[in-house]
TrEMBL record:
<dbReference type="GO" id="GO:0008168">
    <property type="term" value="F:methyltransferase activity"/>
</dbReference>
<protein>
    <recommendedName>
        <fullName>DNA (cytosine-5-)-methyltransferase</fullName>
        <ecNumber>2.1.1.37</ecNumber>
    </recommendedName>
</protein>
<dbReference type="InterPro" id="IPR018117">
    <property type="entry name" value="C5_DNA_meth_AS"/>
</dbReference>
<keyword id="KW-0489">Methyltransferase</keyword>
<dbReference type="Pfam" id="PF00145">
    <property type="entry name" value="DNA_methylase"/>
</dbReference>
<dbReference type="GO" id="GO:0032259">
    <property type="term" value="P:methylation"/>
</dbReference>
<dbReference type="InterPro" id="IPR001525">
    <property type="entry name" value="C5_MeTfrase"/>
</dbReference>
<dbReference type="InterPro" id="IPR029063">
    <property type="entry name" value="SAM-dependent_MTases_sf"/>
</dbReference>
<keyword id="KW-0808">Transferase</keyword>
<keyword id="KW-0949">S-adenosyl-L-methionine</keyword>
<dbReference type="InterPro" id="IPR050750">
    <property type="entry name" value="C5-MTase"/>
</dbReference>
<keyword id="KW-0680">Restriction system</keyword>
Length: 215
């Protein structure tokens, strides 16, 4: 079985599928963020990098069984122009020569960004607010730690705490394989990758249900 990951980020789609029991002969991934690419290459040593999604041509691919993608949401969120994504706008370039007619395509977007502010505050219908992970380190991801009855200390969630909230192993985003070799990834970039990622338990559950349908 071969898998194509578009907008692969730090590889949560692949991680979720593998944790659901999938075995892949080849995984081709597409990403443009150099830190996410380096982190993907570190966590998944045997992968094929395909460049940007606009450069992918299906007639140059092996036969693909599963395509997954978590497309960037900024353009149609309140951080962008707010225009909803049209069906069929996210496709691999070229003809369909390398794609199975019965392949599985799994698009997963982040939660409704039209109702979520990019600093992590989401406003519910009843007017209450819930905080979510974000990819903008300058805003920070904050929690309250109380000391006594009259004092409280506000601190940022650590990178590992954010990884755990996304269902990732500890230090999943800590290292990257760059052109010049292994390098520790800066905290700012780690927060960015984690905030841009989908949640591994969600991907794993979707993958398990797909497997049941294929049996």
């Amino acid at each position: 079985m071969n898998k194509l990951e578009l907008f692969s980020g730090c590889g949560v789609f692949r991680l979720g599928f593998e944790n659901a029991g999938y075995k892949f002969n080849k995984v081709i991934f597409s990403e443009i963020n150099k830190h996410a690419i380096a982190n993907y290459n570190y966590n998944f040593k045997k992968s094929i990098y395909a460049g940007s999604v606009i450069d992918i041509r299906s007639d140059e691919l092996p036969e693909i069984d599963i395509i997954s993608f978590g497309s960037p949401c900024q353009d149609f969120s309140i951080a962008g122009n707010g225009v909803p994504m049209k069906a069929g706008t996210l496709t691999a370039g070229g003809n369909s020569g390398g794609l199975h007619s019965d392949m599985t395509v799994i698009p997963v977007l982040t939660p409704d960004r039209l109702n979520k502010r990019q600093n992590g505050r989401r406003f519910k219908n009843e007017g209450e607010a819930a905080f979510t992970l974000n990819c903008q380190d300058k805003h920070g991801v904050m929690i309250t730690k109380k000391h006594g009855s009259h004092q409280s200390q506000i601190r940022r969630l650590t990178e590992i705490e954010c990884e755990r909230l996304q269902g990732l192993p500890d230090d999943w985003t800590k290292y990257g394989l760059y052109e010049k070799g292994l390098k520790e990834i800066a905290k700012t970039r780690r927060y960015e990758m984690i905030g841009n990622a989908v949640s591994e338990p969600v991907v794993r559950e979707v993958a398990k249900r797909i497997k049941k349908c294929l049996i």
